[in-house]
Amino acid sequence: MDSLTIDISALPDDALAEGDFVELLGPSQPAADAALDAGTIAYEILTRLGPRHARAYVEGGAVIRSIAPGEQP
User: Fold this and answer.
1) Which residue, among 65, 58, 73, 52, has the nearest Cα to 26 in the 3D structure?
2) pTM exceeding the 0.70 threshold for the entire prediction
3) Contact 38, 48 (CB under 8 A)
């Protein structure tokens, strides 16, 4: 089982509501930035995701391929 805690205490009280999504990796949070925060490299962040996570490959702002959780790439 995976577990994740996100500290949102610096956000205004109305910034998030129950059911909102948080971007862990994506246009606003590149893997390199997440790796820097985690004290590692982007390769480690990406390879440790495993096959249980959905993936969307984006090129030029358009999704060119999606892989569902558990689906083989």
Assistant:
1) 58
2) no
3) no
